[in-house]
User: Which sequence fits this backbone?
């Protein structure tokens, strides 16, 4: 398996634009997580899904952020409109079960100018 | 709610010396504990985990960690450091629960710098 695949690896966009980050989890993994990493706040859990259903989105910072998982092999994190303070590295991770570790993608480095 | 503390922002060791990266945790019940490593411009890579059983857990690249329930600690150790071990290390905890969903909470990370 190729692991968790995220695209794009880098994204530079202007303030106010819509940004969509994509994630393909490892096949067979029931859980999918979106994290954000910044120098100031470290790793923050934004939202996670179990069997394609959003379970906890309490980490989503604002209504500008939304996430979907239309099927077991694909998830998106959308920011609309984007702001400079959204600049961060966004990680997707997946996990096969409850007593297991999560596997992380390479991340998407987002820069909003 | 669970939490993790990594009290050291950076740990410096000389190659060949033993290393310890500290982690303490707080959960209301029994924990699942994890260590991850992050190299520059990369995602987090799993090193090792404690779920149950033996308190001494061995993981990838010669790392090990000891679960100490009385001290609520899960320090990462390696007998002999390599320059290539230089990276950012994260401790994480999740509360064990038979039902419901529990978040994995990460510490702030400790940068390990191994000098030649």
Assistant:
């Amino acid at each position: 398996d190729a692991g968790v695949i995220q695209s794009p690896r880098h994204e530079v966009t202007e303030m106010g634009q819509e940004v969509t980050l994509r994630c393909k989890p490892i096949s067979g993994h029931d859980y999918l997580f979106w994290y954000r990493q910044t120098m100031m706040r470290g790793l923050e859990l934004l939202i996670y899904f179990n069997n394609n259903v959003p379970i906890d989105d309490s980490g989503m910072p604002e209504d500008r952020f939304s996430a979907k998982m239309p099927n077991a092999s694909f998830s998106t994190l959308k920011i609309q409109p984007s702001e400079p303070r959204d600049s961060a590295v966004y990680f997707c991770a997946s996990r096969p079960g409850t007593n297991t570790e999560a596997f992380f993608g390479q991340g998407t480095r987002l820069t909003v100018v | 709610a669970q939490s993790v503390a990594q009290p050291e922002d950076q740990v410096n060791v000389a190659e060949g010396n033993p290393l310890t990266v500290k982690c303490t945790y707080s959960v209301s019940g029994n924990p699942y504990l994890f260590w991850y490593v992050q190299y520059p411009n990369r995602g987090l890579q799993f090193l090792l985990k404690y779920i149950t059983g033996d308190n001494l857990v061995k993981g990838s690249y010669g790392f090990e960690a000891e679960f100490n329930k009385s001290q609520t600690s899960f320090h990462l150790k390696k007998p002999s450091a390599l320059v290539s071990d230089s990276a950012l290390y994260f401790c994480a905890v999740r509360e064990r629960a038979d039902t419901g969903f529990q978040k994995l909470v990460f510490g702030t990370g400790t940068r390990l710098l191994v000098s030649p």
